[in-house]
Design brief:
Alpha-Beta Plaits; 11 helices; Rossmann fold; alpha/beta; four-stranded antiparallel beta sheet; six-stranded mixed beta sheet; globular; 2 domains
């Protein structure tokens, strides 16, 4: 579990958190918020890399300030645009990290080679980090964060610079690893439909405030108002549909050429589809994206 009480932190005169509280104990936890919301800062505080001006932070019951070394032994982290030493090979670095986390030399080499193979990096194992492409660097950052199976893993934008196939495979691997090994994984990401697929818990931060904390199941089953889109064949059809939607007191009707948008809850959508049968209606955002917009009044970038 991660337990934060009455946390305050500022960069100089710029406050980031004030009297911030958070208690979270999921398995795969999605932490979302706009750029500058304080997500990466919060992780740095949890890891003891930044010191708050007040408040307490504990991980698995250990106080980060008083027992930082013990906390660091059970965490792994990968940050966006992380850099690693250029004088050591990928294999040797992973073996070193695994040994720091308590594995024997033999087990460290076995797991390091398995991860390099799993992330398609075997042919680069004797090269250093600077020889990798952006996508390869991203995968190596994840590998060093998870080797040795630390109890808590923090991944900042783990699928940045990855193609669609690699992103899906790595997300599935992280999800399965967390549940099979009993690990806690905290993912910071702007790609919310990816988080919908693998997270069981969501933490939403906006302007240094906790605006939402919930299980993913509860969020996805909630009857929120979402924005939907349908494409018509002509302007005449658009005008006819606008009239029908207005008769149903539908909110947020917007026309963009022959495309029509409107807002509706799940219950309202079922009624609308009965009236305008024959038209394909699709949401403009994933459920999690829409909830973020509803709660914060803004969009992720």
């Amino acid at each position: 579990m991660i337990n934060i009480k009455s946390l305050s932190f500022s960069y100089g005169k710029k406050p980031v958190y004030k009297d911030f509280d958070l208690f979270v104990d999921g398995t795969v936890i999605g932490m979302i918020g706009q750029n500058g919301a304080g997500k990466t800062t919060l992780v740095n505080i949890i890891l003891g890399l930044l010191l708050p001006s007040q408040g307490s932070v504990s991980v698995n019951g250990l106080d980060v300030k008083d027992e930082r070394r013990a906390v660091l032994k059970m965490v792994g982290a990968s940050f966006e645009d992380s850099e690693f030493p250029g004088w050591i090979s990928l294999l040797d670095y992973l073996v070193f990290v695994a040994q720091v986390r308590g594995l024997s030399r033999a087990d460290a080499e076995k797991e390091a080679n398995a991860l390099l193979d799993r992330f398609d990096l075997t042919e680069y194992k004797d090269k250093n980090f600077q020889k990798l492409s952006a996508g390869m660097k991203q995968k190596f950052g994840i590998a060093q964060a998870i080797i040795g199976h630390p109890k808590y893993i923090f991944l900042d934008e783990p699928t940045a610079n990855l193609d669609v196939r690699a992103r899906a495979e790595i997300l599935e691997y992280i999800h399965d690893l967390a549940w099979e090994k009993g690990l806690k994984v905290v993912i910071l990401s702007h790609i919310l439909h990816d988080l919908e697929r693998i997270c069981d818990t969501v933490v939403m931060i906006h302007g240094g405030r906790l605006v939402l904390q919930s299980s993913m199941d509860e969020l996805l089953s909630s009857d929120i108002s979402r924005v939907y889109r349908l494409r018509c064949k002509s302007q005449t059809e658009v005008n006819d549909l606008v009239g029908q939607l207005k008769s149903l007191h539908v909110k947020g009707i917007i026309t963009k050429g022959i495309t029509l948008e409107f807002s509706a809850t799940n219950k309202e959508l079922r009624e609308i589809e009965q009236v305008i049968g024959g038209h394909t209606v699709s949401p403009t955002r994933s459920t999690l994206e829409q909830i973020f917009v509803n709660r914060t009044g803004g969009e992720l970038h």
